[in-house]
Each structure stands twice: as structure tokens, then as C-alpha cells.
């Protein structure tokens, strides 16, 4: 499927564009599931100022969607209408000073953990277990192994849909479990985190322990999107899925992981529809077995094929 090419029209509106606008750019290759259709327009901004400039020039009725590393994402087979923004160079710097780490929104969470460890900053090691980038961590209050973004964030810089620069304090982020209250059309550009002084050897050992736990309990070498469903209050999603008899369940080319049944995997030839249908089937079976409705943690964007 392809969309009408609106790139020439958009470029005419923004003569000072510095980044790239590409029509009908395939997105499957930038998602961990390796599925999905194209972006009608993919915008890769050159800098925060470039991002703000373009957002200020885009027609207000044109849909805008930001994506990161594609780890916690299903792009539907019909693709994503409007403009999809993917941050790259210009948003991938990370530095540490004192007990603080400053990171661009495109920096993988694991690099935040490593930068903190190298600087002897404790409290950020949990990011070793988060498969994504800083922008996604801010959007969903990402966490793992006893830590969450809300525990360590000082402030987040962002650009609004209208092209205005904003800074959000931790309190203004409206964090809750796997959620931020910041409007969906705000695009994060960088974040400042704070830990505490620690022993480098102790921090390194903690990160090694997280690495070993992930490798032993999660299908990290498969085409997967990380944890599929949020843990309902008082329950573990994987236990509910297992109790509903869904471990190993297959729909088309998609399967519930045998290793960790809150992970869905692409066995090689799955479509986005296979994966999403499998997830909905799991939700139905868990609801029937336990009375609990699982809530998607993985973000789903675009239109059906």
C-alpha cells in the first residue's frame, strides 16, 4: 500500500527545512517485530530547532506520530497516514556530570544505564532492562527490575504540536504506571536524570545481574516487542496469560512466547494483523478465565492493511 505523495507540498511550506522528509518510507525495518506498512511521510529532524520549525509549519489537521527505536510498537499493515517523526542524529548524545545524566530522546535506555555506571552513578541500572529509547521511557514511564522513570527524572525537554519548546518537571509529567499525562502530540527531545553516588563495581555487578535475568527469562533474541500487556493491579500479566492456557498460542505467523508468555513473537512471516489478533485473542481468553481485562502496553499505530 502507498499513500499520496505530499512531500513536495510540505517542503514548499518550510523553506528552512534542515532534516529529511521521505514519502512512503517502509517502517517494518525499524520495528523490532519487523512488520507493518509505510509512513506516508517520514520526517527525520536535524535538531530540536528543526523539529520545532517543521511542527510549526505543518497543517494543523495533518496527523503527526512520533516513533523511537520501534521496540514497543506495532505498525499496522496499512501504514501510518500523515507525518511520522523519528529522531536520530542530533538527539543521540548522552553525558554524565556529578550524579546526573543528560540524554537525548533517541538514546537507547541501555546507554543511559551504561553512562551512569561509567560515572559511578547508582539508581539508573534498571534501564539496562528496558528495551527502548529515552523518548519512549518518558512517554510510558518505562521501568524494570524495581525502578521506574518517575523515580529518577529531573526534567524533560519537548516540542509541542504547534512548534513551541517546553520543559516539563517530574511533577508536570503526570506519571502513573506505564503512563505519562503529557499530551500525546508532545514530542520529547531530551531528559535529565539524577541518581546518587555509587561504587562502579557494585553498579556493574547489578547491571550484569539484570542482563543475566533478561537472557534467562525473556525471548530477547526473537522478533518481539517486549512486554505486551500491563500488569493489572495485584496481578502479573504473564501469570494470567499462562492460567488462561495461552502459552505457545499461535495465530498465523505470531506466537505467544513459550519462555515468557507476556511476550509475543514474530516467528518469521507474521503480519502486524497476526500479532495484534493474537494479542486480542489472549485478552479475550484471560477475560473469560479470570474476569480481568488486560491493557495493552505495546503501542499500536496506523491503519489495517
Describe this structure in words.
With 305 residues, this protein is α+β, with helices and mostly antiparallel strands. The protein has three domains: 7-86, Uridine Diphospho-n-acetylenolpyruvylglucosamine Reductase, domain 2 (2-Layer Sandwich), CATH 3.30.43.10; 94-216, Uridine Diphospho-n-acetylenolpyruvylglucosamine Reductase, domain 3, CATH 3.30.465.10; 219-301, Uridine Diphospho-n-acetylenolpyruvylglucosamine Reductase, domain 1 (Alpha-Beta Complex). It contains seven helices and 19 strands. The chain has helices at 7-13, 48-57, 109-118, 134-140, 200-217, 237-243, 272-290; strands at residues 20-26, 38-44, 64-67, 73-75, 80-86, 94-97, 100-104, 121-122, 143-144, 147-148, 153-159, 165-169, 187-194, 196-197, 223-224, 250-251, 254-256, 264-266, 299-301. The strands form six sheets. A five-stranded antiparallel β-sheet has the order 6-7-13-11-12. The protein has a four-stranded mixed β-sheet with strand order 1-2-5-3, with no helix packed on it. The longest helix is centred in the C-terminal third of the chain and has 19 residues, at 272-290. It is globular. 46% of the residues are buried.
